[in-house]
Amino acid sequence: MVLLVYTNVLIVFPVFALAQDKLVSDNENVYESLLRPTFQSYCGKCHGVDGVEEGDVNLMELDGAHVGSDIDLLSELVEVLDLGEMPPEGEPDLKPEERKRLVFELKKILKVEVQKSSVFEQAPIRRMNRFQYNNAVIDLFDLKCIVFTLPERMMREHKQYFKPASGKMPDVVTVGNRPLGKSQMIERRLSGVAAFPQDLRAEHGFDNRADHLSMSPLLMESFLKLGQSITQSPDFIQRNVGIWKTFFEPPQTKDQWKSSIGPRLRPFLTRAFRSPVSSEVLDRYLNFAGAKIDQGAEYTDVMKALAAAVVSSPRFFYLYDRVSQTEESSSVDEFELASRMSFFLWGSIPDQTLLDLAIRGELSAPTVLVEQYERMIKDKKIKRFCDSFPSQWLQLERIISSVPNQELFSQFYFLKYRDSMHMLLEPLLLFETVLIENLPITQFIDSDFTYRSNRLQNSYTELGENPLKGKKAGGGVGVLTFNRIPVTDRRTGGVITNAAVMTMTSGPDRTQPITRGAWVAGVIFNDPPKPPPADVPPLTEKAEGEESGLTLRERLALHRERSDCKGCHEQIDPLGFALENYNPIGAWREGYPNGREIDSAGVLFRKHQFNDVVEFKDAILVEKDRFIRGFAEHLMSFALAREIGAADQLAIDRIVEATANDDYKIQTLIKHVILSKPFQNKTTPKLGRSR
Question: Does residue 416 have a pLDDT over 90?
Fold first, then answer.
């Protein structure tokens, strides 16, 4: 047996060594025959020759043996070449077949290197954000009300139109706008419970990002007080607490009090801490409860004190993966997988079904995982995903601070309320419909339907669309009625040309093509531009061309003459000017106030020419896999609470391929995020190790 093992080692090792040698040899051949000549001819001027290194990238330092050693650089090279961003305009360009082969070879090297390294980005330990905390407390106690008001939930549902199990959205929905409608803040909640401060979104990210959810001593103290205020609220009573009878209500006889606590507390702690608790942890709570009862405390008060301690415990409000025994990525355990699924889709702790499957070690089986995904996507709690992901993906919170010039755009203001109350609900209802009805994600680019209130539809009539005759008006400031209508003019529909997006990416007096272009680059393609140099002066907030007779495009052409501005502007300007026919509140216009005609023509990815916004949408649809890729990256970042790294790109490739093969349906994309290797693996090195 020893000889056999020894022989196997002798046999396997040379094979592995030969494979490594072949890999290095192949890379060297590709480098010498393709990469090095291409870099020298097209890239060396800015990235290596004569010591010039733009973006801290020196491609001339690479060699064939180490061309795959930096997977982040490889991934960036693939991206800028595939998107046509490099070489920059004005420099000799690659021929299409040269670019295609270069991307193919770099992707091949990247794939091998990612598979070899097996290390994903780490999601550090983090606390729940307040949206997740609110949901988790509701689910733990089965509350019939909310814990505290959440203005970041931008849309409030009325008459419970949201029924995902039906697979169909109703034609008429009644909704409210939370951030801008004061009356929408009034809903059943636990009185006396104050929310901790709203968690800020990460730049180009989400408010659940691990690197942003720290815990200060002051916030820790507020969590301790928060737990007490929840269970001591006058509304924390049997009518509002679904587990009251099974957890808080005392047994019939007092001599059963102590003995009943353990059987009640163990499943409660398992649910709260998302995994079975040790006897040591359980005993700590039981000893406290027993001492209180011996002191004459009432049973319900003791259980409330236990519950307050649980929801104030770091084991409850901290989210983390257990430490691995290896520097490389390893599979998450069953309970970590259950938590990843529940916080991704429901923004909360796992339910009993997920926990039971995890306890039995069955959840990670692919068929079981798919079954649970399909159950969860049809559960009403998926509304929390709709309340969190789309508004942040689309950056809709920016409209709250939009203040169009009231003299120039008086139609934006309705009495003392703003049209943005109606505007921002349209893309949110579109997202919910695409999700519930499992429609292609391309509907976000060019939808054939939308939801609008009567007032919102009337603002679109200048585009030739018909007012909502015979429909419910829905023009109030409280509960708003939105009707599902077909999109008859492709200048509207989808999220890109939505009035909310056009308004929030404009200034008070004029449109901002750079801001709009940056929004499209970041949101639609997940390729946000770098921040501008600090010494670049902004354009004046003056109506287009008033002072010189120039169009905004001509003014920006002067602005972009700086060499350090040129690269980014080449990327984002065509995306922004494609939308220039929409004024600062999203209404259509043919020209500027100075009489000059608007020029919205451009080129997408330096290969798809367009003359207007409809052709712009067509160009994006030709490149729809790029949009699907960007959307998948946003979704995975949200699911894993971290940035997407180079090691995730192979999984993104598979997600895009699987989604494309199923007619780009959104539920297929979400399912394959859960089935992906990054979602089911973690990188958590042992403490004390340096990486």
Answer: no
What is the C-alpha separation between 638 and 55, in angstroms, rounded?
28
Residue-wise burial string across 213-250, b where 16 or more C-beta atoms lie within 10 A, e elsewhere: beeeeeeeebbeebbbbbbebebbeeebbbbbeebbee
Residue with tokens 């001599």: 255
> Measured between alpha carbons, how far is residue 335 from residues 342, 611, 680 in Å?
11, 53, 11
Q: In sequence order, which residues have a C-beta less than 8 Å from that of residue 49 and are 6 or more positions away?
A: 40, 60
- Closest to 349 (Cα-Cα) out of 357, 360, 338: 338
**Confidence class of residue 49 from pLDDT cuts 50, 70 and 90?**
low
Cα(first)–Cα(last) distance of the chain, in Å?
38
Question: Are 652 and 632 a contacting pair, CB within 8 Å?
Answer: yes
Coil, helix or strand at residue 624: helix
User: Rounded distance, CA 73 to CA 360, Å?
Assistant: 42
The runs of H, that is alpha helices, within 473-601 are 499-504, 513-519, 552-559, 563-577
Cis ω before 87 (30° cut-off from 0): yes
Residue 55 scores a pLDDT above 70: no
Q: For residues 551 and 543, is the Cβ–Cβ distance under 8 A? A: no
For residue 473, pLDDT over 60 is answered with no
The CA-CA-CA angle for residues 334, 339, 345, to 5°, reads: 125
CA of residue 141 relative to chain centroid, distance: 28
Tokens of 292: 């209180």
**Strands 318-319 and 172-177, sheet pairing:** unpaired
| Helices and strands per DSSP (H, E), number in the chain | 26, 12
Structure tokens at 223: 């969590």
- pLDDT at residue 317, as a whole number: 93
d(CA 370, CA 351): 16
Phi/psi zone of residue 601: left (φ > 0), alpha (ψ -120 to 50 degrees), beta?
beta
Q: Is the per-residue pLDDT at 384 higher than 90?
A: yes
Q: Please spell the DSSP secondary structure of 628-651, one letter per residue.
A: HHHHHHHHHHHHHTS---GGGHHH
Q: Which residue has the higher pLDDT, 199 or 629?
A: 629
Beta partners for residue 682, in sequence order: 330
Strand, helix or coil for residue 500: helix
Structure tokens at 422: 């109606």
Residue 31 CA to residue 238 CA, distance in Å, equals 71
Burial class of residue 541 (count of CB atoms within 10 Å of its CB; 0-12, 13-18, 19+): exposed
Query: Would you place residue 634 in the very low, low, confident or very high pLDDT band (cuts 50, 70, 90)?
Result: very high
Determine which helix (DSSP H) or strand (DSSP E) holds 126, and give its type and residue range: strand 126-127
pTM of the model: 0.87
Task: Write down the domain spans for the chain.
Answer: 22-117, 126-149+187-319, 404-622
| Look-up of token digits 């009356």 | 183
* CA angle (58 as vertex; 53, 63 as ends), nearest 5: 165
Does pLDDT of 559 surpass 70?
A: no
Gyration radius of the chain's alpha carbons: 28
